[in-house]
Design brief:
159 residues; alpha+beta; globular
Amino acid sequence: MAVTPKETVVPFILDAEGTGVEQTLRVPGSHEFRTDAYPAFGGRDAAPSPLFYALGALTSCNQVTASLVAKDLGIRLGRFDFRIQGDLDTAVLVGGAEGNANFDRVEVVARIETDATPEQFAEFEREVDRRCPVSQLFRRSGTEYVTNWTQVELATVDA
């Protein structure tokens, strides 16, 4: 019996090739990007580390999810400002120690322009966290995951 995929499932496909610690990644028929590592990890620092991409994916996915949630809640959004910090103990990655090679802690600080009421903003923040696939990857990974979102008066409106 053939398995029929869910109508709501979207496949995300990525091809990659590389040598050493450098890699070129391609979204078939679309985008291309590169990764490298710091010299301490055997790289040349010629492109962002995969760890920076992971943290960047977290902020970007939060912003995309926020747009979807804002539409559902009927609130408007303007500018987003994110600062993210991931604390990584390199003992497992570099030294081969036993344990989890994951970030010990990740903190996302966000300032978001919106016309939401304080109650709507609290619901907005909860829903973005619940619905964002990348947030859930970090939350469920065992890392200490902290968010600090601040509502800012709407000065500009998204297109």
